[in-house]
From TrEMBL:
It comes from Microbacterium psychrotolerans. The chain crosses the membrane at residues 52-74, 113-137, 149-171, 191-210, 231-256, 289-308. InterPro entries: MetI-like, MetI-like_sf. Residues 114-308 form the ABC transmembrane type-1 domain. The keyword Transport applies. It is a multi-pass membrane protein. This is Carbohydrate ABC transporter permease. PROSITE patterns: ABC_TM1 (PS50928). Belongs to the binding-protein-dependent transport system permease family. Keywords: Cell membrane, Membrane, Transmembrane, Transmembrane helix, Transport.
Length: 324
């Protein structure tokens, strides 16, 4: 039975359309998987060998550049001074001296300065996280009518060099306004915490993250009767764990390594952190004991990295927050 020319034309058109769609999907898949080196080139033995050598070289270079100084410091912390000076890269030629750690902890009073540093870092972390999240929430989620003006003012503070604010901040700490002429915040941890609280970079970073959160979730929570505080505590913060981890690391590391400001506002050695006391005792301390003190001082930053590395690598995890 013969078919009509119209039917044959339709069959040909559908066949060509199917072939075109198949080639298009294959080209899209190839484009999605395409890198600098294509799949066909990657199958060549010479290309595989070159890529393997490059990967090994980059890995070894990164390990040496990143972990090399930390591993050398850990090794030197339990190595006698003469061995460190004569054979700095030898692996304990005359044995391990564990006494360096106890001497640094007790004789230099690293325990006291270590505690002071933890207190300063914990306070700086709390105030920075509190101000960054609340300010970012107000500018991004609540969005008052004057939010663009506040956002511009916060952004403008980033263009002011920190050294310019050093003298005004110090005078404010010496004679805080509204507290009387006899009140001073010198040798008080508030003198370190309060200037660190209003960090414009953290505020803008958190605001930018809040801007990308799904508004449908906020509208659904408001429909269910959630107020601003409930929305912030129960909806926004649980969805913002990645950025909270990033701000936490930035805040703690910045407080841990800060030297100039704590030295100015904490002149009493009893309340000074490690970043201020270690340079002060360097000239009076043996090299091996001083390196042991430096190794102890790096414990918290390393612990922070190990604790929050998954937060940096993990996505926001909002794929299932909004369906449909």
């Amino acid at each position: 039975m013969s078919t009509s020319p119209l039917r044959e034309g339709m069959r040909g058109f559908l066949s060509r359309r199917d072939r075109f769609g198949r080639r298009k999907r294959e080209s899209i898949d190839d484009l999605a998987e395409r890198t600098i080196v294509s799949a066909s080139e990657r199958r060549r033995p010479g290309t595989r060998f070159g890529m393997s050598v490059t990967h090994v070289f980059l890995f070894v270079t990164l390990v040496i550049a990143g972990l090399g100084p930390i591993l050398w410091l850990a090794k030197s912390a339990v190595t006698p001074t003469q061995d460190t000076l004569q054979q700095p890269f030898a692996l304990w030629p005359n044995g391990i001296d564990w006494q360096n750690l106890s001497t640094a902890w007790n004789d230099i009073h690293i325990d006291q300065y270590f505690f002071n540093t933890i207190v300063i870092a914990a306070g700086a972390w709390f105030v920075q996280l509190f101000i960054a999240t609340t300010a970012g929430y107000a500018l991004s989620v609540l969005r008052p009518t004057y939010a663009p003006v506040l956002n511009a003012l916060v952004l403008a503070t980033l263009f002011i060099p920190g050294i310019v604010l050093l003298v005004p901040l110090y005078l404010t700490i010496v004679r805080p306004p509204f507290l009387g002429e006899d009140v001073s915040l010198l040798n008080n941890y508030l003198a370190v915490w309060l200037p660190m609280a209003a960090n414009a970079f953290n505020i803008l970073l958190v605001k930018r993250f809040f801007d990308n959160l799904p508004r449908e979730v906020f509208e659904a929570a408001k429909t269910d009767g959630a107020g601003p505080f409930r929305l912030f505590w129960s909806i926004v913060l649980p969805m913002s764990k990645p950025i909270l981890g990033v701000v936490s690391v930035f805040a703690i590391i910045a407080a841990w390594k800060d030297y100039l400001w704590p030295m100015l506002v904490l002149p009493d050695p009893a309340v000074q952190p490690l970043s201020v006391r270690l340079p002060a005792v360097q000239s009076q301390t043996e090299l091996d004991v001083f390196l042991a003190a430096l190794a102890i001082a790096t414990l918290i930053p390393i612990a922070m990295f190990l604790l929050f590395q998954s937060v940096f690598l993990r996505s926001a995890g909002l794929g299932g927050a909004v369906k449909g």
